[in-house]
Amino acid sequence: MREKVTALDVAEQAGVSRSAVSRVFTPGASVSKRTADKVRQAADALGYRPNVLARSLITGRSRIIGLVVAYLENQFYPEAIERLSRSLQERGYHVLVFMASNSGAEADEVMEELLDYQVDGIIVASVGMSNDLTQRCEAAGIPIVLFNRAQDDDRLSAVTSDNYHGGRKLAEFLVAGGHSRIAHIAGWDGASTQRDREAGFVAGLKNAGQTLAARAAADFNFDKAKTVARAMFHAKDRPKIGQMQCLWPTITWLSL
Q1: Cα dist. 13→34, 38, 111 in Å?
Q2: Residue 228: domain span
Q3: Residue 230 belongs to a domain with what CATH number?
């Protein structure tokens, strides 16, 4: 069996120090182009690959970002995750993806497992975090960013859209179109995105002197949304075909 090539072998082949080899394979480290070229040529000739896990033990940084996602049925998420992953890779990081439901208990279990991988940071997409887990991550120095979700916790950064004003603008759009009886199929009530969108939507209707004619929750589930929509269409004051208005893939308003 061929012996494993080490950084020392590469250093001797390239005529440089072992620390120079380490700098060449450390993202962001300072090294001249001449030295980097010599080291990479020697590494290619010897078939050397740096041991990322061993380096993480020395530096204390894994350069892995944990990403927890609730669901991928929404077409928005695959594209967002792809762009996020590419951007992190350009900066020398890699993404470790875990799936979890909106349930706080399951999300916590998944993130407990994620911490075992010594990640440098955690991005949580449409999943809530418990106060206990937030404290543990804070104590461990692991930054957390909530994506498309927000929580009333100053320790957590959040990247999300202006859901309240988006919902309000949709109400204004429907009212301007002459719709007078409007039903709302909501998402999961535990999501800040759902709460903010509906709050803005209801406020927009109220400003126009209207209220919701009907409401049902579908929990961001397409099959459940179809079921409650059919129930609305079979109600006494059912909406007419062609009067459905939709802004987000997971939230639908029906104009009756």
Answers
A1: 15, 9, 44
A2: 163-255
A3: 3.40.50.2300
